[in-house]
Amino acid sequence: MPSSVFGERTEVKTRVAPIGTFAAGCMIAFGCLASVGKAQDGEAKRRPIWPMYRGNAQRTGRSPFRGPAGMRVKWETDLGHEIGACPAVGPAGTIYVGAGPILYAIDPAGRVLWRHDFVKSGHSKEHSECFTSPSPALAPGVLYQAGGLTGKGFIMAVALAADAEPRVKWDFATRHEMRSSPLVVDDSVFVGCRVRRMIVALDRDGRKEWGDTRSSLWSVTSSPALSPDGSTLYIGGFHGGLHAIRRNNGQEKWCLKRDEEAAVCMPETDGKGKTTRLFTTAGHIPEAPAVGDDGTIYCGSWDGFLYAARPDGTRKWCIDLGDRLTSAPAIAEDGRLLISTFEGRLFAIRETGGKPVIDWSVEANARYSSPLISADGTVYVGTLDGRLCAYALADGRQIGEVKLEGSVYASPVPGGAGVLYIGSSDGYLRAIE
Amino acid sequence: MNDTKRTAARIWVGLLLGSACVVCCRSAAGEDGKRTRGRVIELAREYMANEDAARRAEILAEIGHWDEGLDDIASAIRPVPPVDAPTGYLPGDKFTLPHLRAKMTRLLPREGGPVSLHKDKKFRPAPGEEYMNWVHVPEHYDPKKPLGMVIQLHGGGGCDFQPRAGRYALETQAYMMQDLLRGGDFIAVCPSTPPMAPNKFSFPESEIHFNAIIEEYSTRYAVDPDRIYLMGMSMGGFGAWWHAFRHGDRFAMVAPIVGSWWTAYWPKLRGTMIYMLNGAFDNRDRHGGSTHVDYTRWAHERMKTLGIPHIDAEMPAGHARICGRPQLEALFDLIKTVRRDPYCPHVCAVSPFIFSRHWRKEQYLRRYPPQPYSRWVSVLEIGGEGVPVDCPARNARKTFAPQRRIMPTGAVDAENLGGNRFRVKATNVKRFALWLHPKMGVDFAKPIEIECIRLAIDPKTKTEVEAARTTLTRTAKPCLAAMLRYLGDRRDYGLIYHAVLEISVPESDT
Question: Is the ipTM above a cut-off of 0.85?
């Protein structure tokens, strides 16, 4: 791996939104300059703001920060390729995100610190779809990124040194198309992959900890989630099953299989031509499960059901939402679940007397963008028509939106209090304040 | 014997003789009828086998008025598949029917010939080289139990005439076909393509190729004509879209996978289930961005608005099908249940339907075979204007930006309202035909009412707007001539119609 690909000078364009006063501009510029110098210095010492996909190992999608006050674009940086993945945000606010075949590190002012081109490093061909979907994960001093298409799939560790330019620590060839985001626990990294046990487990040096790497017929796009006690990994399968795997040895604890009778459902309409049910399949869990504090595992399936499973592998409940569930669920502080569907409806589900009920739902036009719940009780989702929308968690009322461009597949992530970062298919990463 | 008894005896004798005469006469008429029906079937078979227009006209003059048991006649003239047809995997299978072999030989690519070659490459077929198909027939095939047929079109990185490449298409690239073949009652056909031709399944003559495939395997095997499915991957996905717009009514379902469309008139898809599968992260730098998911999303929105049944099974992945396995499984589930309805109540014909880049090029225009039909409606004569169609284009940031253009063609959107009532919307069409069958709920003893709406094009919005509305009343009479005319043109034994109404579109309201 040639380290020269790091630190390249780039043609990246950043536009900072006018904020009206010279003083404010100076303050931002000063802050940016200060952060550029200190950003990587702090990475290894403090806790990341948003270390991995969905924010934590339980993949709850819950932010400890309040959301933006004004819902306006603070800055936007053109990364040149479609952005389908969520950024990870380091302790000092450095943003790590993939765009097409390039991994970027960007400072909190939107300026590119370095980039790694996976075409030049031989990990990708000309295809910009290289890692549009897997998000990076941060551990102290290391960033993990999965990516690559069939035959070229990889998991990579990049050392983030305080006083030296970043370098590739190791890379592990999976050779399968990688669509799963890494989970980092202690010194291990776990990534969903098209292998027999669905997960590849590597140690801090890139050596396989456990797992049979023989390929399977089934791809994996779901990302692993960790139980609260840290003993079990959960991941969804293409064949509709939810798998529980022992973290220490990779043995399967249980698999909650899809209903044997499940089948494709065609769209249904009532007598007046109104659609009552949309197309669903026999089952497929494409996204990361979310794990509650009590150990309950939640996941959405293409069969139209949101499932809740107990830690012992029995089904707690399920609820039919009538459309393919294409996002990862988010778990609010009060236990409410947020999930969006293929046709873009955002649902809030709450449990009453042990049974799930729909609290509210809205037409959000969100498909893959998984909901983010901020500390002040606001739900954020990106939309297919290029917006970032904010809804009140309490009642689903829309309380704000900002128009972006392209389609938003990724979920917004917090960059600290009052700031969100979001990428779009138009190739721009934007900060929303 | 008194007079009374004598009279009674005479009456009885008379009755007996009369009855005998009636029986004899009926018997003679029955035999004559059978002979006549036999002759009708014989001539109808000749009509289907003989493509000479003069001979066909003679046959229709002789038997065209026949109006009894038309469905039975259609069944009787249908080729009977042999009982000893081979089963299993048939790699490199060649066309066997003489008239199809002749057609396909004419289609072989040659410089300046019908198949457009890649601009940088020259190709002349080697002696003996010809179109082949990679076929799988279930081992349990029984000629008495018709099977469905799936035609799978490979991608641009796939095969041509060469056996090596053919195996690649069937065994590697079409891996999901293996699942289908193991579990389903289907004949699977993976056709080969001319080497070096771009868009190998979408050139003007490819429809002849596809019709030949359907006829060849429907003749050699018992194939249910209402269970023929077309699916294609990448370049094959483009081909699947193309054939859906050209002659989608031949298929129960068309499944374009990571492909896209070039020229679209969405109402034409009425009646045929479309299952489209693109990757959300398919690369916009590849294929000029033409397999980007925006194409299918646009199609999804347009078809949703028009009420055209379809499934958008977008996958959260790129161009590779491996990440679309759950969606492909769902497709196979659907294939097992979806059938074509020859009499579905809402259909649309567009003719001629031509790839937008060929509209102004005479050398291409003359190569398109006529395709005026869509199930029970056909375009007979068009005007001098056109029909608005969607053509994809991209802006400077490679964002999908469809354009509306006026295709020099005519469209007829026909709806069977029931109770001998039809509503027809005609755009740039002077004359059209409705092909009728009792299963459409038509009572031929009663008049048929046709509400005829002439549409014009708003030059500002390039949309169709109503220009005139007229209600016509006609009567239709079932006859063999109508059935044979349609069947002879299309050679599809699932599309049987007994009567035809030819209608001139009124210019103004009446």
Answer: no
- Total domains present in chain A: 1
Residue type, A175: R
Which chain B residue lies closest to A273 (C-alpha atoms)? B307
Q: Taking a C-beta distance cutoff of 8 angstroms, is the pair A266, A279 a contact?
A: yes
- DSSP letter for B184, please: S
Tell me which chain B residue has its CA closest to the CA of residue A150: B320
- Average pLDDT per consecutive 10 residues, chain B (510 residues; last block may be shorter): 52 48 44 76 94 93 94 95 90 89 81 64 66 85 93 72 50 51 75 73 86 95 96 89 94 93 92 92 66 86 90 83 74 89 97 84 82 96 93 70 89 97 97 98 97 94 93 96 96 97 85
From residue A320, give the alpha-carbon distance in Å to each of A338, A342, A349: 14, 14, 11
Chain B residues 102-161 with CB within 8 Å of chain A:
none
The CA-atom distances, in angstroms, between A351 and each of A225, A336, B163, B249 are 21, 7, 60, 48
CB contact under 8 A, B399 and A133: no
Contact A384 B325 (CB under 8 A): no
Domain that holds residue A230: 3-432
CATH number at residue A83: 2.130.10.10
The answer for residues whose C-beta is within 8 angstroms of residue B6's C-beta and 6 or more apart is none
Judged by a CB distance cut-off of 8 A, whether residue A409 touches chain B is yes
CA dihedral B201, B205, B208, B213 (to 10 degrees): -30
CB contact under 8 A, A326 and B316: yes
Half-sphere exposure of B429 (CA within 13 A, CB side): 31
Coil, strand or helix at A68: coil
Tally: H helices and E strands in chain A: 1, 35
